[in-house]
């Protein structure tokens, strides 16, 4: 994962944010293009990294993996006109790639689709909604019979070099800047010098600035002026 994060970063960036959808919100019997078309304004996954900002409108680079969706899902039918650009793709990989390019234009995106889902057999905790089938797909309405344990789920996971990391890194910088390290003798007893600490603090601030966009840069300047 460290090497993957390095691959996704450039221009001084070093870290990546993690996103996931467990399970991937696909209706039973619904094609992959139909599922993704329902998320044209927002991504179907949630932020796992501890950033305050939970939505992302752009990213610099990303790697996305979708598991548990058949490669033939949504492949266009001969003689039937496609209802969207996603429906015109020839494979699940092309569908996901085109979706990412449409949602994040200009970003470097890699994507992979694997047929094998994630197993949720015991001892995996059964905290799933009764609206899920045994294979982890969504139902239109609750079943009339008692639901059985979910045995597997489709999952989407992503690593992104994204502006949301500016908030995380700059917040960490501000918290550490307020820390009076001289009050913690054991901190320097470990071999850390005050100068090294200050240098690392400035490097953290510089790293946070690498993830700024125009609006975030203005916010940072306002915060610096208020300090």
Automatic annotation (TrEMBL):
<dbReference type="InterPro" id="IPR049942">
    <property type="entry name" value="DML1/Misato"/>
</dbReference>
<protein>
    <submittedName>
        <fullName>MSTO1 protein</fullName>
    </submittedName>
</protein>
<dbReference type="GO" id="GO:0005739">
    <property type="term" value="C:mitochondrion"/>
</dbReference>
<dbReference type="GO" id="GO:0007005">
    <property type="term" value="P:mitochondrion organization"/>
</dbReference>
């Amino acid at each position: 994962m460290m090497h993957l994060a390095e691959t996704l970063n450039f221009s001084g960036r070093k870290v990546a944010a993690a996103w996931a959808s467990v399970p991937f919100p696909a209706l039973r019997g619904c094609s992959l293009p139909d599922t993704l078309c329902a998320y044209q304004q927002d991504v179907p996954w949630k932020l796992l990294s501890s950033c305050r900002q939970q939505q992302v409108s752009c990213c610099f680079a990303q790697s996305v993996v979708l598991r548990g969706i058949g490669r033939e899902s949504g492949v266009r039918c001969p003689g039937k006109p496609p209802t969207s650009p996603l429906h015109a793709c020839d494979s699940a990989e092309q569908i996901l790639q085109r979706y990412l390019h449409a949602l994040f234009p200009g970003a470097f995106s890699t994507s992979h689709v694997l047929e094998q889902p994630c197993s949720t057999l015991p001892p995996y905790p059964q905290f799933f909604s009764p609206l899920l089938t045994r294979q982890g797909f969504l139902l239109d309405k609750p079943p009339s019979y008692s639901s059985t344990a979910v045995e597997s789920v489709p999952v989407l996971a992503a690593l992104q070099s994204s502006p949301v990391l500016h908030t995380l890194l700059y917040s960490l910088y501000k918290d550490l800047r307020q820390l009076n390290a001289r009050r913690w003798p054991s901190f320097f007893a470990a071999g850390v010098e005050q100068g090294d600490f200050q240098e690392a603090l400035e490097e953290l601030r510089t790293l946070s600035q690498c993830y700024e966009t125009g609006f975030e840069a203005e916010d940072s300047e306002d915060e610096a002026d208020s300090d």
